[in-house]
Design a protein that fits this description.
Belongs to the neurochondrin family. This is Neurochondrin. InterPro entries: Neurochondrin. One of its GO terms (biological process) is regulation of neuronal synaptic plasticity. The protein is mainly alpha-helical. Among the domains are: 62-194, Leucine-rich Repeat Variant (Alpha Horseshoe); 554-718, Leucine-rich Repeat Variant. It contains 40 helices and two strands. The protein has a two-stranded antiparallel sheet. A hairpin with a 2-residue loop joins strand 1 and strand 2 (607-612). Helix 22 (349-373) crosses helix 23, helix 24 (402-427) packs across helix 28 (477-492) and helix 31 (531-548) runs antiparallel to helix 32.
Amino acid sequence: MPDTAEKQSNEVKNPALEKCLEVLKGAQTDSEQFAALLLVTKCAQAEELNNEMRRTIFDAVGFTFPNRLLFSSSVPDGCPSHLFRSLGVTLLACFCTDPALAVHPQVINKIPIFNETVNTPCQSGNKELVSMVEDAYQCLLGILASPQGAKNLISHGSLPCLCQAYLNRNHCWEKALQILTSLLTVLPTKCWKKSCTDLQLLLTRLSEEFSKEEGERKFQLVDLLPAFLPPLPVLLETSWGEECLKQLCKGLLKILSNKLSISQRDPALKLGACLANAYGSSWIIVENKVERSRFLALIVNLACVEVRMALEDPEPLTSRQSSITACYALVEMGIQACTKEEKRPVLGQEQKLQLIGVMQEACASIIHYLQQFGWEMQEDPFLLASIRLLGAWLAEETACLKLEVIKLLPYLVHYMRTCHQRSVICRNLPKEVSQVALLSCSWGTIWPGDAIRFLLPALCHLSAEEAPRKVLISEGVPVLLCDYFQQQWDVLFAEDEPEGMQSAAELSLQTCCGVFLNLVVTEPTLVGQESSFVLLLKHLMQCLPTLLTKEGHLVLVANFATLGLMMSRLLAENSVLHESNSQEFFKATIHFLSHSHVPSCQTDAGKPVIMLSESYAEAWEEISELWFLGVQAFSNCVHLLPWLSTLVLSSGWLQESLCLLDNVSPKSVDSDLVTALQGMLIELAQSNSLCRDVIRKKGGAEKANLYGMAALEQCLAELS
């Protein structure tokens, strides 16, 4: 029965067409074939043919005859010059609607002809030319639908021709825009690399049209514009790019300032979200500061309202997840605008307070949503987007919603652990599979997303407060972060990891150290009880010497060195500090602590002024607290680890520090540095007689008096 139905569906329903095909099959000469094909094209358009009829035509003529038609330079007297080409393109359009024929090399190598054809000037009254252009688009669309179609069109020069067809408003320019949108959606980087100038002109035109449109088409444009945005950071680094942003802002402001339906508003918010993801709030380029702050406040307010309405709605959210995710990006932009320090802030203080209030309400909705549905929606990527925004909010503000956040912490830890376990599985897949998952920006891949990375800054704040810290400890966060720490270290220097993944890994490692430092300082007893801290210290001892050999990682070195020293104070009796690699770790910490300050070329009272060495000066704002804490922790380790003072002596750090104090102007050495060095000198003098002798020989007592180191002066006097 099914075979009969299928047979019936493939039967020719056009008797005239059937007769033409019979004539075509029996044709003996070119003239007979040509006449038969003319009859075929009269009887049916390509889209009206079923697979059987297409195959019948193809079996009758193959590619040889269309090729001759396309490249023939002469036509019969009285016929239009494009007659043969028109018929050839029509035949290929017929073939291209068959997926098997659309990928044939004989079709692919005709792409330049199709490109040329779509830019054929034609008046609406010239039916033959109009039909040829439409058939050329049919061919391009058929090729585009094949697996390698986008690559084939790009490599055969379709991009500039399609851009030209749109810019010149040639016949079927809407289809040109349709194909361009598909190409840029599938292969954006390749498109911009291949045809940057053409796409620049196209985006400029689209932006202008978007800003000026008053009718329904502005909603069509706002829907497709995200696909035409160039790679970072082009729009903010070029004059034409800034002009595009002005036009996009103008068009968005028109849309968002009006009362709209959800279907009209969502695409506008998505376009704003694409720009916010790429440029923060810098993409908002309007006439003046007042308009800019108004626009920013408007779009963030609208996003917050959408988030609240969607998450508090009892109806399922599935159909609007992509729109709400876009709103999340806009809210995150608002958080950054309200919290980052700027010489000329976009928002005034009152605007910031108002926005913070509405963003807090949006984040409260997220917490409520996660409490309701989080446990049952573990696999839903929308949860990761929700948690990312919540993490961005908590990274800046933990005082508000504190009770709600503490109540949610067990779920957040569970979610982080689940994502981490799945990511470990993903990384263990064959490399070609896992890389695709890691690099994919679309939802629903096997890669679960790095929930820990999004929540780490929040964990850094929460671990400093007693109530949330207790929850984090009870939920096993130290063990989880220790495992994550090792994974991120592996990513950081893996040869085949993308650069973006490595940068994210380095930032995650720094923030991890911040969380662990909070735990070490506030919960010292836990460090001795929890085996994960011993494992962490082993990692640090292995990693720091390696890290020192790499350039450009001073902030991470500071974090590793200081955290390791702080833990060593508490684990001095543990066997981990008596293993062979522990000395290499302390040599590395000495290297970090001893290379920060040097004499400068400037002088004061005939002596050089002390200054930061070049690499430390660049990072000092980020590492100064860690450096001072590291010197203090190192000093505390000296009497706990008897061999450490000998290591200091052999490294030359003690001698170099004393020489530095001797050679520079005392007025140029700030009190914090004096205090830090005094603590180290006292510990070394008390712990090792050889160190004490060096301090004395280098004029330690005189320096103590000169720099106001009363405690060192007393120590040396008591030990004499």
